[in-house]
């Protein structure tokens, strides 16, 4: 996996194919356990980096923590940064905030938006099937509300707190928004290429058998590992537009839904955005016409900057 580590360090991105796809390398054993592919991990940044980072515990009994990313130098008081609570992708099954390309992505996000990023280490399936990840996400939102962390206290503006996720993390951000509305903390949801599904294939899913980033076989495998035992793909965790009552969306904060045209999930994401707006009455900004594949922002700087530009526009439109 050294080629992926190099990509995270600004070397040319590796040539992705179905054959070297990380999701296809998840080995599922007869007893239901899995062996995950090895990926390069990075420690928190050393002092002097363009973006400083450090890990703080969330729930030691569950092994959850937050990796904080702060532009260095940080803004001088009284200027404060919006706070972005970020949930990484990986189909609920693999990766962490320390995964090289997610660490690099959060560094770039903190510098480009700019913002204070808190990236969550959450419990993974199948050892901890959904809704375990949602519970960890809600705990992270509650932590932001009560924390005395010195970086958040000195540099974060919790009146501009956004919950964001990519892929499975985008799915988590939506459900975290539902679970934490009563806290009245989250200013908006940033739902990038949310990981969604359903029993009936969409056209973009049906065309994805040999997709380099999210081949159909891997997509099916991930949902089989993540959903509660016995659940099908129309379960609310996978297909909320079908299984969640629109009235349950009342009070959901303003939301940005972003996606890439060549993503096998793009049909789902566009349907989801319409459902939020038309059925749930949520204020939704839709940016689902970006070029690129699923997760291309992790490896292609131009795709990352398109995402960061959409984030900046969304945050600045709040007028705070």
TrEMBL record:
Keywords: Hydrolase. Residues 84-295 form the Alpha/beta hydrolase fold-3 domain. One of its GO terms (molecular function) is hydrolase activity. It holds the Pfam family Abhydrolase_3. Belongs to the 'GDXG' lipolytic enzyme family. Coiled coil: none annotated. PROSITE patterns: LIPASE_GDXG_HIS. It comes from the Eukaryota. This is Alpha/beta hydrolase fold-3 domain-containing protein. Signal peptide: none annotated. SUPFAM superfamilies: alpha/beta-Hydrolases (SSF53474).
């Amino acid at each position: 996996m050294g080629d992926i580590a190099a990509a995270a360090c600004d070397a040319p991105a590796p040539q992705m194919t179905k054959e070297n796809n990380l999701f296809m390398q998840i080995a599922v054993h007869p007893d239901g356990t899995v062996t995950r592919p090895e990926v390069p991990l990075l420690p928190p940044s050393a002092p002097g980096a363009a973006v400083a980072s450090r890990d703080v515990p969330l729930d030691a009994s569950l092994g959850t923590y937050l990796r904080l990313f702060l532009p260095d130098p940080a803004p001088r008081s009284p200027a404060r940064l919006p706070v972005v609570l970020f949930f990484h992708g990986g189909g609920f099954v693999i990766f962490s905030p320390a995964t090289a390309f997610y660490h690099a992505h959060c560094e770039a996000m903190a510098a480009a938006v700019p913002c204070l990023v808190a990236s969550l280490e959450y419990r993974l399936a199948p050892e901890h099937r959904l809704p375990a990840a949602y519970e960890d996400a809600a705990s992270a939102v509650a932590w932001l509300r009560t924390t005395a962390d010195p970086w958040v206290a000195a540099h974060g503006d919790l009146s501009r707190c956004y919950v964001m996720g990519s892929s499975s993390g985008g799915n988590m951000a939506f459900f975290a928004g539902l679970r934490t509305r009563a806290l009245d903390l989250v200013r908006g949801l940033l739902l990038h290429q949310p990981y969604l599904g359903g029993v009936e294939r969409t056209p973009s899913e049906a065309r994805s058998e040999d997709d380099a980033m999210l081949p159909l076989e891997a997509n099916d495998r991930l949902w089989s590992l993540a959903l509660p035992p016995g659940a099908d793909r129309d379960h609310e965790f996978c297909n909320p537009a079908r299984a969640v009552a629109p009235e349950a969306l009342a009070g959901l904060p303003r939301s940005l839904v972003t996606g890439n045209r060549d993503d096998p999930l793009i049909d789902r994401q566009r349907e989801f955005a319409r459902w939020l707006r038309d059925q749930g009455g949520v204020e939704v900004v839709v940016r689902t016409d970006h070029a690129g594949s699923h997760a291309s922002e992790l490896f292609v700087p131009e795709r990352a900057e398109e995402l960061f530009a959409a984030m900046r526009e969304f945050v600045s439109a709040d007028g705070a």
